[in-house]
Design brief:
- The structure is a single chain.
- The protein is mainly alpha-helical and 257 residues long.
- It has two domains: 87 residues, no CATH class; 129 residues.
- It has 13 helices and two strands, in the order αββαααααααααααα.
- Helix 6 packs parallel to helix 10.
- The N terminus is likely disordered.
Length: 257
């Protein structure tokens, strides 16, 4: 909290507020002399959003890299120091900010999904999130290309996991066992592949893929429920038997692996 207060105060002394017009671009009341290049931000989140939006204007033609980051910084007239304060990791920070901005589409959906079945909630939330990501498909393609690079895989996986977790929480999931993880893995897979489908084949193909993927998951869950033992129980029993063969120790009654 203290860090945010300090940053907010730091942004506040940099100059007059900037405004953005969809037609006219950025404008602000200039200070005389060198102060004319400074822009006011209310807090760090505001600064991140402004810079990411500015960079996104150059991403379709330039890609998501240092060049587009510098171009966005010049567009809103911030110094190199301010740019590095907002995005110390360069284009990776901008990619993360843009991805998280699409998660905002999931806000205030509680009333919309109330009364839906769990599979309907997941499908609705997935399509809502995918539609937000594809608002500007040229930027979305560049963003996915950025995440496809091997050295950005870890960042992409973290962002995907956070989004999947948010979707399940909004759907009302409260699982604390192994299902907590398996459910998020499933949604991560659907989200990433359906976004590629949306960008290559259109929204109808996206809707169809989300539906088919969820149907396939439900069919597997029904099949698993009919088995005499859960697959995870079989693996645990196997691990228990191998442990006894290796160490020759019988676990105490009621003990779990």
């Amino acid at each position: 909290m203290r860090e945010k207060e300090v940053l907010s105060g730091f942004f506040g002394i940099l100059g007059p507020p900037a405004t953005f017009s969809a037609l006219g671009g950025w404008s602000h009341n200039d200070y005389p002399g060198d102060m004319s290049s400074y822009v006011h931000f209310s807090d760090l989140k505001d600064a991140e959003s402004c810079l990411a939006d500015a960079v996104a204007r150059f991403v379709p033609d330039m890609g998501l890299n240092r060049s587009s980051l510098d171009a966005g910084s010049r567009l809103i007239r911030i110094s190199d120091g301010m740019r590095d304060l907002i995005a110390p990791n360069g284009a990776s920070d901008i990619a993360a900010i843009l991805w998280r901005s699409h998660d905002l589409a999931l806000d205030d959906v509680a009333g919309t999904i109330a009364g839906m079945k769990i599979r309907e909630k997941i499908a609705h939330l997935l399509n809502l999130r995918l539609d937000a990501a594809a608002t500007d498909e040229r930027v979305a393609r560049r963003l996915m290309g950025f995440f496809a690079l091997p050295h950005h895989a870890a960042l992409f996986h973290r962002l995907l996991w956070t989004t999947a977790g948010r979707i399940w929480i909004l759907a009302g999931d409260k699982a604390l066992d192994e299902n907590h993880y398996s459910k998020r893995v499933i949604v991560c897979g659907i989200l990433s592949t359906a976004l590629v489908t949306r960008l290559s084949q259109g929204r109808d193909a996206q809707l169809d893929q989300v539906r088919r993927n969820i149907d396939a998951v439900m069919a597997y869950e029904k099949f698993k429920a009919q088995l005499p033992a859960k697959p995870e129980d079989l693996m645990l029993n196997l691990a228990k038997s191998l442990g006894q063969l290796r160490f020759g120790v019988e676990p105490p009654p009621g003990a779990s692996l």
